[in-house]
Amino acid sequence: MSEEQENDMEQLIDDCISEKKYGEIAEKLQECLSEKKYAEVKNLLSELNAVDIAEIAYEIEDDRLPIIYRLLPKELAADVFVEMDTEQQELLLRKFSDKEIKEILSGLFLDDTVDILEEMPAALVKRILKQADKETRDSINSILSYPEDSAGSIMTTEYVNLKENYTVGDAFEKIRRTGPDKETIYTCYVTDKSRKLVGIVSARTLLLSSPDDNIADIMETNVISVDTHTDKEYVAREIQRYGFLSMPVVDKENRLVGIVTVDDAMDVLREENSEDFSKMSAVTPSDKPYLKTSVFKIFLNRLPWLLILMVSATFTSFIISRYEDALLNLSVTLFACVPMLMDTGGNAGSQASVTVIRSIALGEAYPKDVFKVIWKELRVSLMLGAVMSVVCFGKLMIIDSIYNPMTPYVALTISIALFITIVLAKLIGSTLPLLAKKIKLDPAVVASPFITTIVDALSLIIYSNIALALLG
């Protein structure tokens, strides 16, 4: 390939990356592999970001993927491996020799290694661990021993540890000596002889201090830390709240055992948000991307929820059957407005529940705030109910009366029922998530589907009884 052709290829790849056309890049690279132009492929890949290469690898044919990976520089290869999805990682590990697996492990940070092992089959995990030294295996087993949703399960033990009697010069010397193997060097942790956490010092503070200054004099002693068994979502929220690059993790005796870095915290938040979104949509969460999930797995994830909601909707059917004749005898319009009433109530309840669930997730609302939430939602619902009922009355008298004549009393009855339904739906939608949180359930589980079912049933009972009281 001439210099001009190579420049054209680089420009093409840059354009495709800017437009996220990873499939086109994958095709070009596979063409080069077919022509055995390995040097060109290596040069092009070495200029790309690890995240972009992982996206390109997703489009590469399975039999070409190991070749592409072997052409990457060692440090870049480790970063790319972390960014790949689980299936591609497993494919590479099965294709690689023990020596190549050992090289991969040497380039990974400990927490990334643990994340990968948790997704691999047992036989492959056993083979991987054989290539790790005893110290690494002990660290991996220690992290794997913590509960799945705890801070200990997502922490890394690769951090810069300083002593109080160090000078700034000593600190820089240790950072230069050990920094390449640490996940972060921007925040250093100060411990005493018993490994108890006594302070932190940032790289910025070290740079702005004199080489002869003592660490004890410049460190921050008001340290915010978490316990190894603290919920990992709480840890992620705290990192986000304080703007930390990492959070120290201590044991019961306040001894520093690891840190949780901001990139792992963001992964936790993304996973939790995806899980909550799935539950709010009445779908069992999946740990695989949609296009990588089998049809049968999607079927199994959705079926139980649909069955539960179908059975719960039976109560609504009983209520409709109970009041059907009475409503039809009073007015056909009364029965015709049942879907509108149920849909509006369900939507109103969902609005309130989603807002409150988000506040709970962000740490803005707690079960103890239930009365504050009720008072706020009551005022909102009264205003919304008033506007909606007035609009509904006008719609019924002006538009609906054209094809289905009705008396003002019927329209008024429907509007009053709509007003009460909206108020009720808002109160139920805002309080149920807080109640779920109080009794240690996931608030997302009681979101839209169940709230809609509850509101439907109650709104029908209220509607029917109001109609019988006013028109019967």
Q: What does this 3D model show about the protein?
A:
This protein has 472 residues and is mainly alpha-helical. The chain has 3 domains: 3-154, MgtE N-terminal fold (Alpha Horseshoe); 161-261, CBS-domain (Roll); 291-471, Tetracycline Repressor, domain 2 (Orthogonal Bundle), CATH 1.10.357.20. The chain is built from 23 helices and 6 strands. The chain has helices at residues 3-18, 22-34, 38-46, 50-59, 65-70, 74-83, 86-95, 98-107, 110-119, 122-130, 134-144, 151-154, 168-178, 203-207, 215-218, 232-242, 262-280, 295-330, 332-336, 338-361, 370-403, 408-438, 448-471; strands spanning 161-163, 187-191, 197-202, 226-227, 246-250, 256-261. Strands 1-2-3 form a 3-stranded mixed beta sheet. A 3-stranded mixed beta sheet has the order 4-5-6. Helix 13 (168-178) links the parallel strand 1 and strand 2. Helix 16 (232-242) crosses helix 17 (262-280), helix 20 packs parallel to helix 22 (408-438) and helix 21 (370-403) packs antiparallel against helix 22. The protein starts with a helix and ends with a helix. The model has no long low-confidence stretch (mean pLDDT 83).
